[in-house]
Every structure is written in structure tokens, then in C-alpha cells.
């Protein structure tokens, strides 16, 4: 879809151009017969590289301290 979809957030306070998206917002799209994650606990941190590509920076469990696990660049 779009890197600015509902549920995604600007995270410029962490790094310029950084965005985050909690996977709980995608549980319906990922649903398969007899295999559903009821409460996803991970957040994707990414940057928009260009119109048709994103750069995934990190995938973190939502209980982790974000600032400790993101690259410094």
C-alpha cells in the first residue's frame, strides 16, 4: 500500500525521515486459515527511500527501548 498508511507515524524525534508502524494494524491483512497472531507485538521502523521503495531500519518488540536499538545514522 502506502508508507504513510493509517497507523504509521513520523518519528523525526529519533532520526530524520524515520517512520514507525505497529504490526497490530496489519493483523487482518496477514490472517490465514487457522494461523492468526492475535496480538502482534512488533513495530517496523522504516524510511521512505523513493516513490516505490522503503528502507526497513529495524523491527523491534514493542517492549524494547527504541533509542537503544536504532542505528545512529
Automatic annotation (TrEMBL):
It comes from the Bacteria. This is Plasmid stabilization system protein. It comes from Pseudomonas syringae pv. actinidiae ICMP 19096.
